[in-house]
TrEMBL record:
Residues 21-258 form the Radical SAM core domain. CDD domains: Radical_SAM. Keywords: Iron, Iron-sulfur, Lyase, Metal-binding. This is DNA repair photolyase.
Length: 395
């Protein structure tokens, strides 16, 4: 292990989302046992000033030593069903320090006692150490392993993700989790312009992921926030790919706070990714079959309608009416959630009952002003049918 400075601290609470569930990474609760990251990815968004990670991002590792006690305390009090997501954009839960601190192992043991589904996000094969316990939790509540992977060439991986596991190791881990019946997905982000966003790399990556049989891929382009994140990344390009430096400067010349590159590139790369990845039968979202029993019905519908909006739009299908229904549904849900959050004696099934009432009373059609969509929601909620993200129809 490279020299690091350990900083022990106590986390005050795990994070809870009481608002609308983000459709890209659907989750209700989340935590990270560490802050900062030894994987030292040169593009890491966690380096950005916005996240206030102090010290040397690759060496000053914050260890949240009370994480398992905190879980024990807080999971007792959760009111809503929903995925608990482990990991974040500013630290990997299975970075090398975990081998000695074992906070993930302890957390998994606590999670095994409760009834929440779990998502783990990592670039490290150290997660294999705990596969037996994740398998046990999966049988009870559902577990999804999300591995970040964009490179196929391990030399390139070594330049940009020096502390993370190799490409082969990550593919092998995905296979092993899949063999244990655990859903696996790949966070194919960020694709590095001119290096890993090429047609050749995208096709080779897709081929490998098809061989593994991943359940989904969530792709994304590189963002570079002005400041430390951008400066460190540009130094890597200057030292390793000097011929590309001018091109990178041009793509990120607008220095937007969000870090997005210029619009023409965004459009181009999105089209390329969609064109290649949509040739396969791997969904480009967390598929409905995976999250359908992991959230309350009202959140499941919200996530599903959001995903459908994107899926239809990518196929060139008019989404105006769907957009309008989603907007109306969201307004209803925001209002109901506000009231639910105020009344601490209610359980999520009380809010589910309100959705059921809308369906049974015929009020849903009036609310979303769309007969077809109302029928669709009815079939998902009452008949528990699942939407196929590839065929775009209910099963
Ligand atoms: S593994 Fe994730 S959190 Fe860690 S350095 Fe890489 S991108 Fe950042």
């Amino acid at each position: 292990m490279r020299n690091i400075n350990k900083h022990y601290t106590k986390l005050k609470s795990i994070s809870k989302n009481t608002g609308l569930v983000g459709p890209l990474f659907p989750r209700k609760y989340s935590f990270s046992p560490y802050s900062a990251c030894q994987h030292a990815c040169k593009y890491c968004d966690g380096r950005a000033e916005k996240y206030y990670v102090e010290g040397d991002f690759e060496k000053d590792i914050v260890i949240r030593e009370n994480i398992s006690e905190l879980l024990e305390e807080e999971l007792n009090k959760t009111r809503e069903l929903g995925i608990i997501s482990i990991g974040s954009g500013v630290s990997d839960p299975y970075q090398p320090i975990e081998a000695e601190e074992k906070l993930m192992q302890q957390s998994a043991e606590v999670l095994a006692k409760y009834n929440l589904p779990v998502n783990i996000m990592t670039k490290s094969v150290l997660a294999m150490r705990d596969i037996d316990i994740w398998e046990k939790i999966n049988l009870k509540n559902g577990v999804t392993l999300m591995v970040s992977l964009t490179f196929i060439n391990d030399n390139l991986r070594g330049i940009f993700e020096p502390g993370a596991s190799s490409v082969e190791e990550r593919l092998e881990m995905l296979k092993k989790f899949k063999e244990r019946g655990i859903y696996v997905g790949v966070l194919a982000m960020p694709f590095i312009p001119y290096i890993s966003d090429t047609k050749k790399n995208l096709m080779s990556l897709l081929k490998k992921l098809e061989e593994v049989g991943v359940d989904f891929i969530i792709p994304g382009a590189l963002t570079l926030r002005p400041g430390k994140q951008k400066d460190i990344f540009m130094d890597i390009i200057k030292n390793n790919f000097p011929q590309l430096l001018g091109k990178f400067k041009n793509l990120y010349r607008e220095n937007r706070q969000s870090g997005v590159p210029i619009y023409s590139y965004r459009q181009q790369v999105e089209e390329r990714i969609d064109k290649i990845f949509m040739q396969s039968s791997i969904p480009l979202h967390l598929p409905h079959y995976l999250y359908r029993n992991q959230f309350p019905l009202y959140d499941e519908i919200y996530i599903l309608l959001n995903h459908m909006q994107d899926l239809y739009s990518k196929r060139g299908i008019d989404i105006a009416s769907l957009e309008d229904s989603l907007k109306r549904y969201s307004q209803w849900l925001i209002k109901e959630k506000k009231s639910f959050n105020r009344k601490r004696n209610l359980n999520y099934t009380d809010l589910e009952q309100k959705l059921l009432f809308l369906i049974y009373s015929g009020e849903l059609i009036k609310l979303i002003k769309n007969k077809k969509m109302s029928k669709f929601i009815e079939e998902v909620v009452l008949e528990r049918r699942t939407f196929d993200y590839i065929k775009l129809k209910l099963k």
